[in-house]
Design brief:
two-stranded antiparallel sheet, two-stranded antiparallel ribbon, single chain, about 70% helix, about 5% strand
Length: about 220
Amino acid sequence: MYDTSGSHSVCYATTPDNNLDGRLSWLKGEIARDERRGMSFRAAQDEPALAPLGIALSTEAAYAWFGTFLGLFPPFAIFCRILTNGLRGDAALGWGLLFLGMNAVCCLVGRKTGAYFGRKVGDPRAWSWFVLIFCSMLMGTAWGVVTGAAGGAVGFGFGAFPGVICAVPIALAAFPVFATLHRAVSRDGMIEERQLWPLAFGIPFIIAALILSPGIYQY
């Protein structure tokens, strides 16, 4: 290449470009950075939708919370109905303290028993609907026997049998409902907190409300 410039119209060669390797290295680096940015963008698009939405809990934790609230609200409702039907004065205070201890035991044992069954369930979507519902009924029966007997035993041991009688029907109704809804909204054995609380808290709370409703259940 030649350059024609100047007032004397003298032709002379321009300085050769000896930095070709440097330019190629820069170009390769830019291409590599663009490829990495494209891969990061695609990876962000392919991430599961569950991750950015909130904290996810395992099936064991979900059933533990469900067992906690199931051991808290329905027994509390039953004890309230008993205390408000004929007990007055010191007798009401004594029975109230006893019921408080029984309720605390039901809550604790219900949580431990629920967590145990949650470990056994694992990923609920690995179970067929029929098997899950049938097994949830068995789990509810076992939960009611263990939790009702433990809570009732606080009442001088004689309350174990009445505790089972009260707890089994409640758990037998609640467990299939929770297991079904939990399977529907969980994924890979995980469920979001914001989806769990309406189930783990709401189902026992509704049962407690039904127990306290005089139009549905009367002593």
